[in-house]
Design a protein that fits this description.
mainly beta, TIM Barrel, 5 domains, seven-stranded antiparallel sheet, 10 helices, 11% helix, Ig-like_GH2, signal
Length: 929
């Protein structure tokens, strides 16, 4: 970038106006949404061997250079590219006589830097850490300068590669975070480390560069709106360049994940009363205490962490992010009612921690290491850079020294030496320093082992997501056990977002997103932050306001028992609203009728129980559903719970018409009952009672070959037909030994058809049970249903949905794979009342009078993981109506090991007595309307 004389003059004026403050002059852009082109030469891979340009910051693979590499590939020889960067920039003459640092926020992986042909300093090795060089004496003032950076993707230091580049995540190359000049007075505050405690005590350690001239330093605390808090405090400067400032303020507003109160502190370096340098920092007053064999205490309150692991990742830019993405990610976490996030497996962008500070998330900040670790000299330097950079963020409450064996134990003691706050240090995946953080423990082993142990339990990874498995699936079981176990401090799900990288080396391939098979498809949200089904389950399970399960009966008085699972917030600070909804039939296009009602916010203290009181209108029983919405003090929805007023039998009785003017006609062949009524033709097998063919005036309805019982004997036999008034009944006979499951069809003169099955599961334990039909998938266009939606469910992931009318068009989405269309069409759907199937111009509707019926739409084309853990089981056929469905596993656990809800259904020994059979009744409208 070249400056005109006018621009240089304006820069000089700007500098004079801000001479007493630290200035930042960006040589790069600030993120993936704001970049600057530098000259670039890649030595190997795509587009190598020629000088061109590249946006900075960026990862060069995403810009079409070099070779893509997932960590397990272990940096093959072809992947050891180097990137040569050049950038010309101007420096105003007015900067002469100032101290100027050249700052890199992050470079992958080794960086050799020159300014005007001279080395700026030693090679920096390590990707995720900010580093700087004093370039005061290397610059040409008032004219042009040349910055050169030789970046090696593969480090010359073996331990750096072991710690950073052999992990289970994408590895990239390049200057991926911003680069800027830091312009300071010659005498300046070089660094500030702050400890602000909940009791109001404030301590700041300042590292000064004074040349013996500056005489004193002072500080003043302000609110973020600029109001002074207390009086200024100061200290004289002694030799050594280090000064400690202390102050106590009265009753500070405290920082927590629920109350992210911050203050601004202004430091002034003076020489005989004259201001030399002015520095501003933001802080939060809070105290984090670890009580061994007890738990984590923040400001004196024992907390439980509802957390997720988060990689710094975006599909089109790799590890190069932006403040906008940080805001997006933290808001999504807060929307899921999370209160914590773990940096996996390296420090994040500074702006991410800023957003965690301002919106409120507890952060575990991590020194990189994944099975391998840094050697001690390298780790010592990088640890210093990590803590120097992140020390003042109130959101950071713990440090992690490497992940899953990537711990250099010689560095443990250095954290306390470097950190003014002496934050606790963990080893992720170890029982270490009072915390058992072991990963992916099975529910029975993990919870029981934790309950029998003496360490505070805090799995830094649990319920490893893959595609649609994990995360929400199993979370309810795990969380309730964690919540009630005194030594459990919560945990962190793996992980936040699917890591699907856009491949620039696939020559316009239709599917450019690459998750390296199942390795990167681990998110609760998609690569572009699409909300997947588990998002809503996590939101409900981790809501800090917990509504107890209850049935809405005619005697309901509007009282909802609740539990306040906040740590610092009274429910009186939240707001609650209510709504009644009356839905239309599947044949109406009118909107639901809604009526709001007030809900009093009760005064329930944190961690206590109480009740909500709804002011229901007199006609509330005339509606189908009741909704309660809880909103936090910042107007963020916690969750909306839905309750059934009308049960399926109520809705079915008003929807299904049995009376009609027509007459049901029956003819028989050797193998079929052929029935006609009002233009509808049915063929039913005499042998087994299955529906063989359906047609109406529009043509065939393709639902056939059912009901077929799932995990039960298909022994419907000895069919007979009879009339009951104007109704035709075709039914099997019960025999305790050979035909103990029974099927009955009733055809009404209205044209509606009733199917009733009574059946016994094949064993005491079953994965799923219900009835199946065949239907050609290519004929299905959409479904509209009354029930819980809009996302599919699993036996161990039933929470997160809402009762109502839902619609979705057919799609073939597999979670975590393109196309990223959500909610997915295929799978199980809960609490069906009725469902209208839009089938290639000839729709049909199915209703039930049974509660808790699931309808299943086809079978997703599941991909697999190497252990075959997460794969769910689907019934036969294409469309099913189920009273039991399968659960789903995670990448690291089978479904049955994620807790009771992941296990099979258990039944008593029914002894095949008719009165003990399971019943399901379905109604079919094949009229085509």
């Amino acid at each position: 970038m070249k400056y005109s004389l006018l621009t240089l003059f304006l820069l000089s004026l700007c500098h004079l106006a801000t001479a007493q403050q630290t200035e930042k002059h960006y040589l790069s852009g600030t993120g993936n949404d704001n970049t600057v082109n530098w000259q670039f030469y890649c030595t190997a891979g795509q587009n190598s061997g020629k000088w061109t340009t590249i946006p900075v910051p960026s990862n060069w693979e995403l810009q079409g250079f070099g070779k893509y590499n997932y960590g397990f590939a272990k940096d093959s020889a072809k992947g050891k590219e180097q990137g040569l960067y050049k950038y010309k920039f101007q420096v105003p003459a007015s900067w002469k006589g100032k101290h100027i640092n050249l700052v890199f926020e992050g470079v992958m992986t080794d960086a050799d830097v020159k300014v005007n042909g001279k080395s700026a300093g030693p090679t920096h090795r390590g990707s995720y850490y900010a580093f700087k060089y004093d370039v005061t004496n290397l610059l040409n003032y008032g004219t042009s300068n040349l910055l050169e950076a030789n970046v090696s993707k593969h480090s010359a230091n073996v331990s750096v590669n072991e710690a950073e580049r052999k992990g289970d995540f994408w590895i990239f190359g390049g200057i991926f975070r911003p680069v800027y000049l830091e312009i300071l007075p010659v005498e300046h505050v070089a660094n500030v480390a702050i400890d602000a405690k909940a009791n109001g005590t404030f301590t700041a350690q300042l590292q000064l560069v004074t040349n013996g001239k500056a005489t004193d330093v002072s500080a003043q605390i302000f609110t973020t709106s600029g109001q002074k808090v207390g009086t200024p405090f100061s200290s004289k400067i002694s030799s050594g360049g280090r000064v400690t400032l202390t102050k106590t303020i009265l009753n500070p507003l405290l920082w927590t994940s629920e109350t992210p109160n911050r203050y601004k502190v202004e430091f002034q370096l003076r020489q005989s009363g004259k201001l030399v340098h002015n520095v501003t920092k933001y802080v939060g007053f809070r105290t984090v205490e670890i009580k061994q064999r007890d738990g984590i205490y923040v400001n004196g309150t024992k907390i439980k962490l509802k957390g997720v692991n988060r990689h710094s990742f975006w599909p089109t830019s790799g590890r190069t992010l932006s403040k906008k993405i940080s805001v997006l990610d933290v808001n999504l976490m807060k929307d899921m009612n999370m209160n914590a996030v773990r940096m996996s497996h390296y420090p994040p962008d500074d702006h991410f921690l800023d957003v965690c500070d301002s919106l409120g998330l507890f952060v575990f900040d991590e020194l990189a290491g994944w099975h391998g670790h840094y050697d001690t000299p390298t780790g010592t330097k990088l640890l210093h850079e990590l803590i120097t950079h992140d020390v003042n963020h109130p959101s950071v409450i713990m440090w992690i020294n490497g992940n899953e064996g990537g711990h250099n134990r010689e560095l443990d003691a250095l954290f306390a030496r470097e950190d003014i706050q002496k934050r606790h240090v963990l080893h992720a995946w170890e029982d270490f320093n009072g915390f058992d953080t072991q990963h992916y423990r099975e529910y029975n082993y993990g919870i029981s082992n934790y309950n029998l142990g003496h360490s505070i339990t805090l799995p830094t990874e649990f319920l490893h997501g893959v595609y649609d498995g994990g995360h929400g699936a199993g979370l309810d079981d795990y969380w309730e056990a964690m919540w009630h176990e005194p030594l459990a401090a919560g945990g962190f799900l793996w992980d936040f977002a699917d890591q699907g990288v856009v491949r620039t080396d696939r020559n316009g391939a239709k599917d450019p997103l690459d998750t390296d098979g199942n390795r990167g498809a681990d998110g609760i949200v998609g690569p572009y932050r699409e909300k997947e089904g588990s998002f809503f389950t996590v939101k409900e399970v981790w809501s800090p306001i917990k509504l107890e399960r209850r049935e809405i009966t005619p005697t309901f008085d509007g009282t909802f028992p609740i539990e306040n699972r906040y740590h610092f917030t009274n429910t009186a600070q939240c707001s609650f609203t209510g709504k009644l909804v009356k839905v239309a039939s599947p044949y109406d296009v009118v909107k639901p009728i809604e009526k709001s009602f007030s809900v009093t916010s009760p005064n329930v203290k944190p961690l206590e129980k109480g009740a909500l009181k709804a002011a229901l209108p007199a006609d509330w029983k005339n509606y189908n559903f009741l909704y309660i919405t809880a909103t936090d003090p910042f107007k963020r929805e916690l969750f909306t719970w839905s309750f059934a007023i009308s049960l399926p039998n109520n809705v079915a009785s008003s929807l299904v018409k049995t009376e009609g003017a027509g007459n049901v006609a029956l003819t028989e062949t050797d193998s079929l009952y052929n029935v006609t009524i009002n233009g509808i033709q049915l063929s039913i097998s005499k042998r087994n009672g299955t529906l063989r063919q359906v047609a109406n005036s529009k043509g065939k309805v393709q639902l056939t070959n059912g009901p077929i019982l799932q995990e039960a004997a298909n022994n419907f036999q000895n069919f007979t037909q009879r009339t009951d008034g104007k109704n035709l009944i075709i039914e099997s006979n019960f025999d305790r030994k050979s035909s103990y499951n029974t099927l009955q069809w009733t055809v009404f003169p209205s044209g509606w058809v009733k199917m009733k099955v009574r059946y016994f599961p094949s064993g005491y334990f079953t994965f799923m049970n219900g009835v199946n039909f065949s239907f050609p998938e290519a004929e299905m266009k959409a479904v509209t249903w009354l029930g819980k939606g809009p996302y599919r469910v699993w036996k161990n992931r039933l929470k997160g949905g809402a009762l109502g009318v839902w619609h979705k068009e057919y799609n073939n989405t597999e979670t975590g794979e393109q196309p990223l269309t959500y909610p997915e069409f295929k799978g199980y759907h809960a609490n069906m009342y009725w469902c209208k199937f839009d089938a290639a111009g000839n729709p049909f509707t199915v209703a039930t009078e049974n509660e808790d019926v699931f309808f299943r739409l086809f079978t997703p084309a599941w991909k697999t993981d190497q252990w075959h853990n997460y794969e769910p089981i689907f019934p036969s056929g294409d469309i099913s109506f189920m009273q039991g469905i399968s659960s789903i596993g995670t990448k690291t656990q089978r479904n049955e090991t994620t807790g009771p809800m992941g296990q099979k259904y258990a039944f008593y020994d029914y002894e095949k007595e008719p009165a003990r059979a399971i019943e399901m009744t379905l109604y079919f409208d094949f009229s085509g309307k």
